[in-house]
Amino acid sequence: xxxxxxWPSEFDARLSKKYGRSVPKNIAIKSPTLREIEDAAVxxxxxxxxxxxxxxxxxxxxxxxxxxxxxxxxxxxxxxKVKSLxxxxxxxxxxxxxxxxxxxxxxKR
Length: 109
Fold this sequence. Notes:
Layout: E1 3-6, H1 34-43, E2 47-56, E3 70-76, H2 81-108
Antiparallel strand pairs: 1-3, 2-3
């Protein structure tokens, strides 16, 4: 299975492709966390081979601090990187929507 490096900036809707966003804007996520990416990858059956929360994507060095998201994952997946990134982005959106529904239901009680 192919292994590839995944940066949170590859999913960030606030960034342009120039600064590392790899997924289309319509499935990109605002401020994705390393934990969300890891949870989505595991939920899809991908294997997280390595995790380093302190690394910073070199493409982000010229940006303001609020746009810099630290961390990197090395993932092993049965698909190529582009398809896997899209699948992870869609899974994160799904997980966020579920969390929002649960949060909203708790408020109604």
